[in-house]
Design goal:
The protein has 224 residues and is an all-alpha fold. The chain is built from 9 helices and no strands. Helix 1 (6-32) runs antiparallel to helix 2 (44-73) and helix 6 crosses helix 7 (149-155). The chain is globular, with a radius of gyration of 19 Å.
């Protein structure tokens, strides 16, 4: 049994990745209730809000790394983790919003709507969350079969979502913008690599007189 066989991925690597994705939420949960020596400090709601948001963004960018990884290893096995990573990213972002709406604002929808309208970084964050919803709802194989080519177009929303996520983070930071700059650079690199690869394939296909429909090693019709 090889390290990247279907059985090994299903029985070993997927459970490990699942546990790794769940670990930040577990740590934040223990800190929220001051269990086992964990603590979120003097303002636990703010720490929980920021922690969930940052991990949502981290997992979103990790999801975007999957396709470039298939180019590097020249094999499709990393794609087996993409749906799990994407759903965890959505879950953390949704929890980020729920902590804001329930714990921070007490479900005072008049103040929540006012925040969304008047505070640009919240407007951008809500936009990213709304764009994530159709991706989460169409993440199943059944949805992929029913939507056909439209499924790939829907899941191209991950590109503006990543940009909006970094934008939300950047505007939220009031002084030290170095960390948001790192995130912005990673997004620019990931999206730029896709654009360069797409253009190179178009040029090669034009020279060869062939349409640009063939897939690179390890690539699927899912564009992310």
């Amino acid at each position: 049994m090889t390290l990247v066989s279907a059985k090994t991925i299903a029985r070993v690597w997927k459970p490990l990745v699942f546990a790794a994705c769940l670990l930040p939420a577990l740590q934040l949960g223990l800190g929220a209730f001051a269990i086992a020596g964990f603590s979120l400090g003097a303002n636990p709601v703010e720490a929980l809000l920021h922690g969930l948001g940052k991990w949502g963004l981290n997992l979103l960018l990790i999801t975007l790394c999957v396709t470039p990884l298939t180019w590097i290893v020249r094999a499709p096995w990393p794609l087996r983790f993409r749906r799990m990573l994407g759903l965890f990213a959505f879950s953390y972002v949704m929890l980020h919003f729920l902590v804001y709406a329930i714990l921070d604002q007490g479900l005072a929808w008049n103040f929540i709507v006012e925040d969304i309208v008047e505070r640009p970084y919240i407007t951008v964050g809500i936009g990213a969350l709304l764009l994530l919803l159709p991706l989460a709802l169409t993440s199943t194989r059944r949805a992929m079969r029913r939507l056909g080519r439209r499924w790939a177009k829907i899941h191209q929303l991950i590109y503006p979502i990543a940009i909006l996520g970094v934008w939300h983070y950047w505007w939220q930071v009031k002084q030290d913008w170095r960390e948001p700059l790192v995130y912005a650079s990673i997004v620019a690199l990931l999206l730029g690599a896709r654009l360069v690869r797409h253009n190179l394939r178009k040029v090669r296909s034009a020279v060869a007189g062939k349409p640009t429909t063939e897939l690179a090693p390890g690539q699927t019709r899912n564009p992310i």
